[in-house]
């Protein structure tokens, strides 16, 4: 990332992530679309396909003067905004997301609010030393990684034996 450029999350029109990504690349915009391999079932066959991890979202790295160039790209609905201005995402969070996708972690974005739980630290693997919030959902233990500027928390499946408790969110 060059100085002056920042990462932003943008919404795309439904099922237009790939078209918007290509249109942004044609304009010379650095764009990131996290994808994961998924087995899809049709009535006559099964097939492995690459699908966006975040439906209707992309990430762009641009300077402030390029925001309108992104906003008026075919397939783009708009930026994620806070206080009426596009909300930038720290590069460390984008690097983390890229690493999780590249290492093929079991990722999902939660669509419901998740109650606060225990703060934990990962003890082994590629996420060793990373801290997050532990939640229990559908009988599985998952580490909740909050990407603050997104609308949905990111859940990563981490075996319970690979984490240690730090403290509760309430400080107890």
Low-confidence stretches: none
Count of helices? 3
Q: How many individual domains?
A: 2
Q: How far apart, in Å, are the first and last alpha carbons? A: 39 Å
Biggest sheet, spatial arrangement of strands: 10-14-13-12-11-15
Largest sheet: 6 strands, antiparallel
- Oligomeric state as shown: single chain
**Tally of strands:** 15
CATH architectural type of the largest domain? 2-Layer Sandwich
Q: What structural category arises from helix and sheet content?
A: alpha+beta
Let me know the CATH homologous superfamily of the largest domain: NusG, N-terminal domain
According to CATH, what is the topology of the largest domain? Alpha-Beta Plaits
* Element-by-element helix/strand order: EHEEEEHEEEEHEEEEEE
CATH top level class name of the largest domain? Alpha Beta
Silhouette: globular
Roughly what is the average pLDDT, rounded to an integer?
Answer: 85
DSSP strand (E) fraction? 35-45%
Radius of gyration, whole Å: 18 Å
List keywords for this structure.
Alpha-Beta Plaits; 172 residues; 6-stranded antiparallel sheet; 5-stranded antiparallel sheet; SH3 type barrels; globular; 41% strand
In brief:
The chain is an alpha+beta fold and 172 residues long.
Report on the structure:
The protein has 172 residues and is of the alpha+beta class. The protein has two domains: 96 residues, 2-Layer Sandwich (Alpha-Beta Plaits); 62 residues, SH3 type barrels (Roll), CATH 2.30.30. Helix content is 16%, strand content 41%. The chain contains three helices and 15 strands. The strands form four sheets. Strands 10-14-13-12-11-15 form a six-stranded antiparallel β-sheet, with no helix packed on it. Strands 1, 2, 5, 6 and 9 form a five-stranded antiparallel β-sheet that branches. A hairpin with an 8-residue loop joins β11 and β12. It is globular and about 45 Å long. The chain starts with 5 loop residues before the first strand and ends with a strand. The mean pLDDT is 85.
